[in-house]
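Sample intake — 3-methyl-2-oxobutanoate hydroxymethyltransferase
Collected from: Candidatus Campylobacter infans
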Amino acid sequence: MDKITINTLFAKKANEKIVMLTAYDALFARLFDDIVDMILVGDSLNMSFGGNDETISLSLEAMIYHACAVKKAVKHAYLVVDMPFGSCVSVDLALKNAIKVYQKTGCDAIKIEGGAEFAPIITALNNAGISVMSHIGLKPQYSRQMGGFKVQGINNAQALLDDAKILEDAGAKMLLVEGTIAQVATQITQNSNLPVIGIGSGANTDGQVLVWSDMLGFFENFKPKFVKQFLNGADLVRQSVNEYAKQVRSGEFPSSQHEYKFQG
């Protein structure tokens, strides 16, 4: 299969939906790579993988570690890596950290949460040859400031439309719109020349992304309204582990077929 590039994604905007999924390790990235168009090493790993209740405490080093693992398995999909909280608060810091991520992980693009206020940073990164996916709408890295995970577009629709236009003009290559009223996300998509990926933002964006552990039913702490579970993963794992434990305790496993023996 040919490698997905930014040109592929722009072509898909006009013709077919773009499929994106998160991954945090080589094992799952390898399973997803031939099926999806884009893989996101998201800071959501701090919650679903790390057991925390927010993304804010995740370090740049942790993101790089997971992104390097994912990259080893990705041959087809377009690879995007989240820039964690605090890593892009100024142009100089963003350049330093994004260059480090770009060099060490081999990713195709980075993702930055933030609106129009990040335009100078997007421009600087674009000029440095680093592709950026801008993330607007519900921004998990701002959850403390916002008092939780709040749906966007109810009282700030025009601000979101302005953010999208300003970030596109600044040089962003893609937009991710999260947790936004569907009609507003539709308008953003229609007004943008960029591929627009939605999560919890309705069906009319150019593509969709979900956290893999949500989509496969492994994450049980809570289930957002926008998540559809395509597998009861947690139940299936429990059943398998219970069966393993039962067979070990009964002596059924390992059987002779699982033993190494002298030949002859």
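Post-analysis note: The mean pLDDT is 96.
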